[in-house]
Amino acid sequence: MSESATEKSAVAKFALIIVCLGSIIGPLGMASVNIAIPDLAADLQANAKMVSWLPTLFILSSVIFMLPAGKLADNYGRKRVYAYGLALNAFSSFMCGMGTSIEWVLFWRFVQGGASAMIFGTGVAIITSVTPAHKRGAALGIAAACIYVGLTVAPAVGGWLTELWGWRSVFLFQVPIVIALLVLMKMRLSGEWKNAEKTRYDWWGTGIFAVFSSSLVYGLSILPSLWGFVLLALSVISLVSFVLHQSRSRRPLIRVQMFRESRVFSMSLSTSLLMYASNVPLIFLLSLYLQYVKGLSPLQAGQVILVQALSMAIMAPMSGKLADRFQSRLVATLGCVIVACGMLTLSLMNTETSITFIVGSLLLIGVGFGLFSTPNNNAIMGAVQLHEVGVASATMNLARTIGNLFGMSMVNLMVHYYIGDAQLNQEQIPALIQTVDMALNMSLAFVVVACGISVFRGKSRIA
């Protein structure tokens, strides 16, 4: 191997290490916060309505800024945008940890979501830029596995930190890790990767999409008021305008014609959106249920919730091998059915439900989701032409985050309706049980619809 080839190989390996560490830190920082919510709410005297915005604003910001971050990275440098995203994530985490009011924390949580978009919108692009084609699939698989690792350890880490040092430590622990990562990038990761020529960006499309996302989220949160219905109408108008604008644009953010050209592509994306919409409220609500209703400590609650992510991490690689042997549609649909069984058992939960019953339900959901995710992603990527895999990947990530956003927005609506401005305490347990019950029934309905769509999606080119 020549010296140049050796240097390129070293850069590719170190870039993979950097992206993998970022892929762990991102979901770790996002999901661990859910365990700290009861302590945060008590310390800042935040009501249920305000704390329900903690995960929602993070996801909303990620949705709005994901496509702009990718475009900026293509024009000005992927490593640069990735580094800025890490730095902004560390700074916003520090500011959240220093918060003296819930409004302060919510503002910096929104900023943190934008930083997350900069990290995840460019990490895959960096790996693609430096890794040889014959090694790219394995590298991307490792990076994806690191996201699951972050999600797996997040509940336990969040519970451990909260119990030992309080809710602020859940934000602050990321800061020194990110600083060390930035120093490593500066010292060891040489080079920059961007397009040879800067291309124009569809800012109109981005603006319309931001209006759609924001009006949908806030409109749902203030129903059944008149302004809630007005904002929902605005979100529908914005969505239609976005689709029309993208279909006529020379440089669209998303080529909407792809949805008409491939039933497998469009129905697999729809399945993904529904499955993630069903899953994202789970950790948020279970964290509240386990600590307020069952009286568990943050560490104990984190260990219970850990079961789902751990089973997902174990099953995801195995499901890829199953999808190579059988149809992706069959494996993904089996995963949906298992998740539905887990959601059905979990929907029977009440104040007397045992922790063992909850752990068993979460195990089912994790196994099912692990079986679903990889084959469904394979079906999406296998349904498009080779020159459109980049657009397909961005669309797949957007479907996942929109699913997350819609699921949390619906939970916001339920929290506002059942609990409202009241402080989260023992007196609100009946209202919290009603919220959890309604949200789990909603999640079950999403999964049942996803099962039906998955069955009829058709066979992809990669089986």
From TrEMBL:
Keywords: Membrane, Transmembrane, Transmembrane helix, Transport. It is found in: Membrane. The chain crosses the membrane at residues 12-30, 50-69, 81-100, 106-127, 139-161, 167-189, 201-220, 226-244, 264-289, 301-318, 330-349, 355-372, 402-419, 439-456. GO terms for cellular component: membrane. The keyword Membrane applies. The keyword Transport applies. It comes from the Bacteria. One of its GO terms (molecular function) is transmembrane transporter activity. It is a multi-pass membrane protein. PROSITE patterns: MFS, SUGAR_TRANSPORT_1. Residues 15-462 form the Major facilitator superfamily (MFS) profile domain. Signal peptide: none annotated. Its main location: membrane. InterPro entries: MFS, MFS_dom, MFS_trans_sf, Sugar_transporter_CS. Gene3D superfamilies: MFS general substrate transporter like domains, Multidrug resistance protein D. PANTHER family: MAJOR FACILITATOR SUPERFAMILY MULTIDRUG TRANSPORTER MFSC (PTHR42718). This is Major facilitator transporter. It comes from Paraglaciecola arctica BSs20135.
